[in-house]
Each structure stands twice: as structure tokens, then as C-alpha cells.
Amino acid sequence: MKRLAISGICLLVATAAFAQKPAKPVSPTKSKAEAAVVKAMLEAQSPDDQIRTADELITKFSNTLYKSFALFTEADAYEAKNDHAKAIVFCEQALAADPKNFDAEILDANITAAQTKDTDLDKAEKLASADKMAREALATIPTVTKPELFALTDANWEKMKAQSGSRAWQALGLVATVQKKPDESIADYEKGLALDPNPILMLRVGRALEAQKKYDEAIEWMDKVVASPDSSAQVKDIATKDKARVTGEKPK
To answer: In angstroms, rounded to a whole number, what is the distance separating the alpha carbons of residues 56 and 52?
Structure first.
């Protein structure tokens, strides 16, 4: 649960906002050695360290209760490294280990939608797959009880579910964007924003409005990104550059 791509930046900038990692494990492990590796995986900061510790856990403790989470951690880390193919492979493995791992399904949906091009011969198939995964995740989220693997408060669990739902709506918005359906994409992004005020989704709304030549509305959304307390310096810089571009596109 961590990182969002907006043409050029890592698909999921906030799953370190696509969600927050649980603070610590609480489910029993079979040994102190396994517990130590789980702890190291949760504390790993760089994608390479996340991949290394998650792989170590799965390799040394194949029956670990944290298997699906570890596989998702690897998927998310590979996406952070822009290795989309490996990210999808690990999403699929995470889902094989736990079909209710909606974060893996949502990440897969976002990557698939974001990487689909108009020139792809299998464009329709890819978009249908992304749409299906995102909608399945949205249906699954309300049915899943708070996981016993981590020390989560009820409030944190509800927040994490809301963030995941927001990312699912982002995937649907990306599908609509590739399909050249800006009104639908905006509606999907706004549904995501209703769950989590993610500045990446604000940027996406602005760009969708730009595509419709609604320049003043697009600029308003880019200003919202800059003003958002959740925007990183990188995201604010992108929004500032987007605003300059849109301003230049406006009829004189």
C-alpha cells in the first residue's frame, strides 16, 4: 500500500499516498526469525529494500500469513521503479495468495490503464481488464473485515479503505481517459476525490478539463493542487507547469 502516475511521475506518488503501510505486525509468526523479516519489510524505505525483504520473507517462510501482503509490497516497489511488467506479475501473485487483496487488484488496474496506448492492438482487452479489476475491488472493499495481521485502529482501517476506493476510481478514470471520454473520466476522478482529497486526482481533473478546452476550470483545479496541504513539492511543481501550459493555450 503505498505510491500514482500522472504521465511521467510514478503511478501511485501517494500508494505512499496508493496507502499508508501498517505500523507493525500483530499476527503470530512461527519464529522470531520470521517476525524479524516481517518487521524489516514493514520498515524498509527504498523500493530495493522493500523488494529484498519481501522476497526474503516469501523465500524463507513460504507459509507466512503475510505472503499476499509481501507480494503486494514487491509489486508496489517495482512500480515505484517503473518496472510495470514485474509490478503486474507480483500483483497477480498477491491475488493468487489472497483473492481479496483489493490493493493488488487496484494497482494492477491502474498500471494496466495507465500503460495502455491508442496504438495497442489489444487496447480494448486491456481496458476491459482494468475496468473489471477496479469494479471488482470497489465491490470487495466494503465486504472485507479489518485484517488481523497489523495493529490498525478502526479509524485507520476506514481511512485505508477510502484511499483504496479512491485509487479504484482513479483506474476507472484512466480507462475513460484512454477511451477519450473526458466527462466520464472527470466524474470518476471526482468520485475518487470524494473518498480521498488526493492532489494527483485533482491534477487529473485539471488535465481532463484541459482536453475539453475548459481552460479556466482546468486552471482552478491546478490552483487547488498547489494550495493542497497534501501536495508534495514535486506535485506542486507539476501543477504549476500545467497551469503555465494551460494559460498559454487559452485564446487571447
So the answer is: 6
How far lies 142's CA from each of 89, 102, 168, in Å? 26, 11, 13
Mean pLDDT of the residues in the chain: 87
Amino acid at position 3, single letter: R
Q: For the residues of the chain, what is the DSSP string, one character each?
A: -----BTTB-TTTTSSSS-PPPS-B-S--SSHHHHHHHHHHHH--SHHHHHHHHHHHHHH-TT-TTHHHHHHHHHHHHHHTT-HHHHHHHHHHHHHH-TT-HHHHHHHHHHHHHH--TT-TTHHHHHHHHHHHHHHHHHHGGGPPPPSSB---HHHHHHHHHHHHHHHHHHHHHHHHHTT-HHHHHHHHHHHHHH---HHHHHHHHHHHHHTT-HHHHHHHHHHHHH-TT--HHHHHHHHHHHHHHHHHS--
Mean pLDDT score, 134-140? 97
Summarize pLDDT for 96-117 with one digit per residue, the tens: 999 999 999 999 999 999 999 9
- Residue 4, pLDDT score: 38
Residue 144 lies in domain: 1-195
Total domains present in the chain: 2
Same domain, 17 and 117: yes
Average pLDDT over residues 4-20: 39
Give the global pTM. 0.87
